[in-house]
């Protein structure tokens, strides 16, 4: 394992994006399996906005909340 201080910033950003995308996918699948949920969909939209702004931790929080709501 390479210490994060030795990883290129682009590599770290790529990891963050991929983890965020995986969490978004989990939320979307859970919402779909639950037959839809407007509040959960709104949380995903808020997560998308946070992700687009580079706030991956905040986005993951929104996606997690959406998933928890419908699981």
Note the topology.
Elements: H1 9-33, H2 38-52, H3 56-70
Structure overview:
The protein is 77% helix and 0% strand. The mean pLDDT is 93. 24% of the residues are buried. The protein has helices at residues 9-33, 38-52, 56-70. It is an all-alpha fold and 71 residues long. α1 packs antiparallel against α2 (38-52), α1 packs parallel to α3 (56-70) and α2 (38-52) packs antiparallel against α3.
Q: How many β strands by DSSP?
A: 0
Mean pLDDT: 93
Q: Can you count the helices?
A: 3
Distance between the termini: 34 Å
Indicate the structural class: mainly alpha
Residue share in helix:
over 70%
Rg of Cα set: 14 Å
Which ranges are low-confidence, i.e. pLDDT below 50, for 5 or more consecutive residues? none
Q: What is the succession of H and E elements?
A: HHH
The biggest sheet amounts to: none
> What amount of the residues lies in strands?
under 5%
Q: What gross morphology would you assign?
A: elongated
Summary, kept brief:
The chain is mainly α and 71 residues long. The chain has helices at residues 9-33, 38-52, 56-70.
Name some characteristics of this structure:
71 residues, mainly alpha
């Amino acid at each position: 394992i390479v210490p994060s201080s030795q990883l290129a910033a682009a590599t770290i950003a790529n990891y963050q994006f991929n983890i965020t995308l995986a969490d978004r996918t989990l939320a979307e699948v859970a919402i779909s399996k639950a037959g839809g949920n407007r509040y959960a969909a709104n949380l995903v939209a808020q997560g998308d906005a946070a992700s687009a702004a580079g706030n991956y931790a905040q986005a993951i929080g929104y996606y997690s909340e959406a998933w928890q709501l419908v699981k």
